[in-house]
From TrEMBL:
This is M18 family aminopeptidase. The keyword Zinc applies. Gene3D superfamilies: Aminopeptidase i, Domain 2 (2.30.250.10), Zn peptidases (3.40.630.10). Its EC number is 3.4.11.-. Belongs to the peptidase M18 family. Its cofactor is Zn(2+). Pfam families: Peptidase_M18. Transmembrane segments: none annotated. One of its GO terms (cellular component) is cytoplasm. The keyword Zinc applies. It is an enzyme of class 3 (hydrolase). Keywords: Aminopeptidase, Hydrolase, Metal-binding, Metalloprotease, Protease, Zinc.
């Protein structure tokens, strides 16, 4: 098995574990702890040492991992990589029970800019965080994941919607509540009772007495896989943006200990990032300030630092090539993509892009560029948000992807491993990152 095959197998295993932002952070924390990173708590004093490896979690759904340079401490600048832990999905409503025509359904909200059509006729499961009262009357929370396919959203047959292939639209209130089971006559099912039963199965000692609330996401149970006649592609749910989270983790684990480095994986990017744990919140700035030691040192730190925001890019689709600028259509398996937008929807500039091209050339990885068509709106990332909130120089890059925001996305089998090589070089690049 080649090095790329081994990497992709590990990536697929990570994607299988990381079914919600809470499970993403749990998996990342487990990997970091195994690599010698020490868990910190925000409500405690920190004693950071040169050469030390640390991580801190906020809300269970965002994480910052960092290393203090032995030869170049935080004041000399920090090499930052950013990604996000959330993906578009369907989330259960607080009072979700719907009993229609003898079926139990779950009412859902659409989280983020989900492509809804692919959610039909998939084997769905449910996972997330549940808050409950234990036997001692204390409020506690725990993660659950049903893992098995427990729900489905059946399509309406073509015979009952003859225009389905021409003009089908989806009503998010009425068309997409998943079906969980068929009920017997007179049967009533309480959703919270189902969750309590699941809590006790996964956490037998939790003592759950009453489920108080929850944040639960439906997801596709079809596992990630390497696909294509020649194994050219990776197909999976949540490639946007868990691929970047995993790539950042793998690069961070190759840190040589010389310069200070950091990986931030924020929640809530798909809904604007404005939250205590999102990129528009204070989490990253708080960690950087504590790394610096005081406010003046923090100002010097941010001026000497650089962030690479890693978030998937739109690969040029062979069936829809006209949706791209003719000179900026990234191909899968042709290297990471620098994302550029004159209106600052991406935060890249000539200096940060030039450094990335130089680093990529040093490790023999090709680089592509993406610019949205001038007559189309452009998406955005945590890059401009972080640059505006923290004041750090920023580059937006990503791996070329098809079907972004679908329940199953497609990326090149070579691209993730190649991006690890570039980001590892960024973390371990000797000397300053260039003049401000």
């Amino acid at each position: 098995m080649s090095e790329q095959d081994t990497f992709n197998n590990d990536l697929c295993a990570f994607l299988a574990r990381a079914t919600t932002p809470f499970h993403v952070v749990s998996a990342l924390a487990e990997e970091l702890a195994a690599a010698g990173f020490i868990a910190l708590a925000e409500d405690e004093a920190w004693s950071l040492q040169p050469g030390g490896r640390y991580y801190v979690v906020r809300n269970g759904s965002s994480i910052v991992a960092f290393g203090i340079g032995e030869q170049a401490g935080p004041e000399e600048g920090v090499r930052l990589v950013g990604a996000h832990t959330d993906s578009p999905c369907l989330m259960a409503k607080p009072s979700p029970e719907r009993q229609r025509q003898g079926y139990l359904q779950v009412g859902v909200q659409v989280y983020g800019g989900a492509l809804l059509n692919p959610w039909f006729d998939r084997d769905l499961s449910l996972a997330g965080r549940v808050s409950f009262r234990d036997a001692q009357g204390q409020l506690r929370s725990a993660l659950i994941d049903f893992r098995d396919p427990i729900a489905v959203i059946p399509s309406l047959a073509i015979h009952l919607d003859r225009e389905a292939n021409n003009s089908r639209t989806i009503n998010a209130q009425t068309d997409i509540p998943p079906i969980l089971c068929q009920l017997t006559e007179g049967e009533k099912v309480e959703f919270r009772a189902l969750l309590r039963e699941r809590l006790l199965q996964e956490h037998p000692d939790c003592g759950a007495q009453e489920v108080l609330d929850f944040e639960l996401c439906f997801y596709d149970t079809q596992p990630a896989a390497v696909v294509g006649l020649r194994g050219d592609f990776i197909a999976s749910a949540r490639l946007d943006n868990l691929l970047s989270c995993y790539v950042g983790l793998c690069a961070l684990k190759q840190w040589d200990g010389v310069s200070s480095v950091l990986l931030v994986c924020n929640d809530h990017e798909e809904v604007g990032s404005l939250s205590a744990s999102g990129a528009q919140g204070p989490f990253l700035a708080s960690v950087l300030e504590r790394m610096a030691g005081d406010r003046a040192a923090y100002a010097r730190l941010t001026d000497r630092s650089m962030l690479i925001s890693a978030d998937n890019a739109h690969g040029i689709h062979p069936n829809y090539a006209d949706r791209h600028d003719e000179n900026h259509g990234p191909l899968l398996n042709r290297g990471p993509v620098i994302k550029i937008n004159a209106s600052q929807r991406y935060a890249s500039n000539s200096e940060t892009a030039g450094l990335f091209r130089m680093l990529a050339a040093e490790v023999e990885v090709p680089v592509q560029s993406f610019v949205v068509r001038s007559d189309m709106a452009c998406g955005s990332t945590i890059g401009p948000i972080t640059a505006g909130a923290v004041g750090v120089r920023t580059l937006d890059i990503g791996v070329s992807t098809f079907a972004m925001h679908s329940i199953r996305e497609l990326a090149g089998a070579a691209d993730a491993a190649n991006l690890v090589r570039v980001l590892a070089r960024f973390y371990n690049f000797p000397g300053a990152l260039g003049a401000r």
